[in-house]
Amino acid sequence: MTSAVHIREQAIDRFWDTVPPLWGRIRAHIRATATANFDVTVEQFHVLRYVRRRPGSMSELAAAKNISRPAISQAVEVLVQKGLLARLERPEDRRYIELTLTQAGNELLDTVFNETRAWMREGMKILNEDELKSIVKAMPALKKMVDQFQASSSRKA
After folding, report:
1. Residue 82, number of CB atoms within 10 A of its CB
2. How would residue 157 be classed by pLDDT, with cut points 50, 70 and 90?
3. Residue 83: which of 40, 24, 126, 20 has the closest Cα?
């Protein structure tokens, strides 16, 4: 086995040992924060987060989240009823309904992000400066991998 292949296999093993459990803990914290403070599911939270970054139509949201249009419509309706999302008609094209966050939706995301960042900050206190720098240094490589997976899955769709 070549050195590059061996290192790649080690990286895969470390990834599986670390990222899914970490993401599971983060999701559990987001779920607890969003549910306790706002009665919002993790999936609804992700819809709000996506709309904040890229306001657009339900079709665009469904495609981006890889969720059926009826499922997105249902999630959007719940969020509209809760006053967290708004549907806006475009005067030039009444068929296009743009989804945007309300002030309450923005406040919800700000609160959940701030509480989650504080929770993560507390958890990272066990890491020394070199360990933190290693994490920061590794993030662009992980992002590159995520981007590649997203690009290859969008080409298959």
Report:
1. 17
2. low
3. 40
Residue 138 lies in a domain: no
Sequence-separated contacts (24+) of 107-115 with Cβ below 8 Å: 108/34, 108/37, 108/38, 108/40, 108/48, 108/84, 109/45, 109/48, 109/49, 109/52, 111/33, 111/37, 111/38, 112/30, 112/33, 112/34, 112/37, 112/38, 112/45, 115/33
For residue 100, is pLDDT > 60?
yes
Domain tally, the chain? 1
Angle between helices 3-38 and 103-123 (to 10 degrees): 130
3-state secondary structure of 110: helix
Residue for token pair 């895969």? 12
pLDDT in tens, 25-37: 998 998 888 888 8
pTM of the model: 0.73
Q: What three-state secondary structure class fits 40?
A: coil
Q: In CATH, what number is assigned to the domain containing residue 45?
A: 1.10.10.10
